[in-house]
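Hi V.,

You were right to ask for the full record rather than a summary. Here it is.
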Amino acid sequence: MSALVIIPARYASTRFPGKPLAPLKGIPVIEHVYKNSLRSKLAEDVLVATDSETIFEKVLSFGGKAVMTSPHHPSGTDRISEALGLLERDYDIIVNVQGDEPLIKPEMIDAVISVLHDSRASIGTLIKKIERPEEIFDPNVVKVVCDEEGFALYFSRAPIPYYRDEWKDARAETAVLRSKQLLSGMICFKHIGIYSYRKDVLVKLTSLAPTRMELAEKLEQLRALGNGYKIKVQETSFETLGVDTPEDLERIEKCLNASL
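Predicted structure:
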């Protein structure tokens, strides 16, 4: 199966306008994402889809490939869908790598592509076991529960599964934060936001209206589940950190320095 990585990168951001161009160890964030994606063994090529001429020109300047898309897309998935219509060739699998995740690993891209070797899966994504108790009740950390074959049943900002007996005697948040041993014997997974799509599935999803659960949780992947598409997950040991604020750059630079 042929696979293409598309990196949606918009200029506008409420908390950090122009963040794909922000320097990280002297290199723009988008260049880190692009070059890490190029190291994938299973993806045949990498493309940036942007609404910014400045980002477009920057990608070309470091030898990357880019296309211009509308500034009015509500999500990166919609931006990718438009980019598909601008391609000169067809691909079986499209991988969505966020343009603000400079720590993305090529192994993560290969993993989500490999997930779609299962013909039952329409979409692939990654999960990681939660090791820090405070993440369980953090609504910015999306949790996921799966069936016995590795297909996602639900994604939520709430703690799932909820360990009723362990957390029944006190407010769960307090119990979790009080005991660093509370995760012993419990298994909770968080979602790592990289996706692989069969091309026809991606195009169809962007034509569908948001579902009730998607609107409630503000999680786009619930549109797929709500419309009967199967999302297969793969566990990873890798962590990612996105750039949402200027302060995140310092945290990520520390991670890059530690890996040297």
